[in-house]
Amino acid sequence: MAPMTAAMADDLAELSARFGAALRHAGLPVGPGRSERFATAVTLVRPETNRDLFNCALATLVSSKDQADMLRVVFTDVFGGLDEPGQPAGTPAAAPGPHGSPPPAEPGRGPASARMHTEILRAVDKDGDEPESAADEEISQPYLGSAIERLSGADFAELSAAELAELAAAMREMTLAVPPRRSRRRNRRPGGRRTDVRSTLRQARRTGGHAFRLIGEVPAMRPRRLVVLCDISGSMEPYARAMIQLLYCAAGGANAEVFTFATRLTRLTKELARTTPAVAIARAAQAAPDWNGGTRLGAALKEFNDRYGRRGMARGAVVLIISDGWDTGDPELVRQEMERLSLVAFRIVWMNPRTKSTSYEPLAGGMAAAWPFCDAVVSGHSLQAVGRLAAALADPVRQRAITAPVVG
User: Fold this and answer.
1) Does the structure show a pLDDT above 70 at 217?
2) Most buried by CB count within 10 Å: which residue of 4, 100, 181, 228?
3) What's the pLDDT tens digit per position in 17-66?
4) What are 238-256's pLDDT values in tens digits?
5) Distance between CA atoms of 408 and 389, rounded to whole angstroms?
6) DSSP letter string, 32-75
7) Does residue 111 have a pLDDT over 70?
8) CA distance 380 to 321
9) Among 35, 33, 27, 119, CA closest to 74
10) CB-count burial class (<10 Å; 0-12, 13-18, 19+) for 72
């Protein structure tokens, strides 16, 4: 039998994914790993009957008796019974057709969804034969894309807590990088603009004091600090949970300092360390008693500047402020504190989910006061928009006094 082609493998992978989606819909924890093992088992066993196919599924897709019972129910609904359609129990299966492929199904024989079994066998056993018409290959259940693909474009405010948890895997693959900065330290490098005199003389001792080779040096580079101020007031609560989950998953490499604010400022850096996203969010809610409260943006910025920014935390850092700009305090205080922050921070990126609309204008008092001191304003309202947020954080160019919103 000829080896399986790439197209055959793709067909089998797709059909295995559809079967796994049906099992997940029924409540079984069947992920991509188990679906892959099921496809591998089908490739090795090459089942000729529904019972052989069920045994492949039983060995790779479930891990308990309760799950096996549910698997049998879903398997029967998708592929038909454990005996061949229209065949009494215990009757031997029909002889396979040419090249080891099963005989074509007769019209009106068995449920329509049982054709999936035939498609799997064709993907495994056919040897260069042309596929049948599209009508013969039609499957009653449409293909269900992965949860990440379905949820990546959805607004965070429209997602449930369970759906936000599903996005955690995709967020772990993202990186929140920040521009580097020059360090006071220097690294030795051949051809550097400056000569490392000490290293050059130390090497010259081996040649009687004659420096036959000059050792150069260049300034060392290190990443800037990322400081995040996240609004957890009532209007920002859905986005705040998603952003805190993103910061837990992706900001570890950026050495981020995370603060939340509504009516007061709370430092959450320790609460977000060495734990799972769900536990981190729960600890954050306990540490921040003003969660889902009002907004005092100006007071929070002043407390940060007085307690942390003045001590050097914001000096040369990239500051990310996550807020819709709605403030119950004095906008003039917001303007003053944003000006103080802009004097020490390298870049200020403001994430406002309201800017997802092309007709957005900074009419809210807090947002209007802060706008001239921001280097970039992005929406970050979905997983796709988070990519533009990451690009704004990594931008090495300072752009103060933006006159038009950067809709992300």
Assistant:
1) yes
2) 228
3) 888 888 888 878 787 778 888 888 888 888 888 888 888 888 888 877 77
4) 788 788 778 776 555 556 8
5) 8
6) HHHHHHHHHHHHHH---SHHHHHHHHHHHS--SHHHHHHHHHHH
7) no
8) 12
9) 27
10) middle
Alpha helices in 87-176 (DSSP H): 115-125, 134-137, 147-151, 161-166, 168-172
pLDDT of residue 8: 47
Q: Terminal CA-to-CA distance of the chain, rounded, Å?
A: 53
Rg (CA), the chain: 30
What is the Cα–Cα distance from 350 to 246, expressed in whole angstroms?
Answer: 16
Selection from 301, 159, 161, 139 nearest residue 230 by Cα: 301
Backbone angles phi, psi at 216, to 5 degrees: -90, 170
| Among 201, 289, 281, 209, residue whose Cα is nearest residue 248 | 281
The torsion angles phi and psi of 80, rounded to 5 degrees, stand at 100, -175
Q: Write out the two tokens for 127.
A: 């040897």
Residues in the chain: 408
Q: Read off the amino acid at residue 115.
A: R
Average pLDDT of the chain is 74
Token output for 130: 């042309």
Q: Which of 217, 225, 220, 192 is nearest to 316 (CA)?
A: 225
- Domains of the chain listed by start with CATH number: 6-142 (no CATH), 169-176+224-394 (3.40.50.410), 180-223 (no CATH)
- What is 219-245 written as a DSSP string? EEEEEPPEEEEEE-SGGGHHHHHHHHH
Contacting residues for 157 by C-beta, under 8 A, at least 6 apart? 238, 239, 353, 381
- Assign 3-class secondary structure to 302-367: HHHHHHHHCCCCCCCCEEEEECCCCCCCCHHHHHHHHHHHHHHCCEEEEECHHHHCCCCCCCCHHH
Q: What is the DSSP code (8-state) at residue 146?
A: P
Distances (CA, A) of 57 to 27, 30, 114, 171: 16, 11, 15, 31
Q: How confident is the model at residue 131 (pLDDT cuts 50, 70, 90)?
A: very low
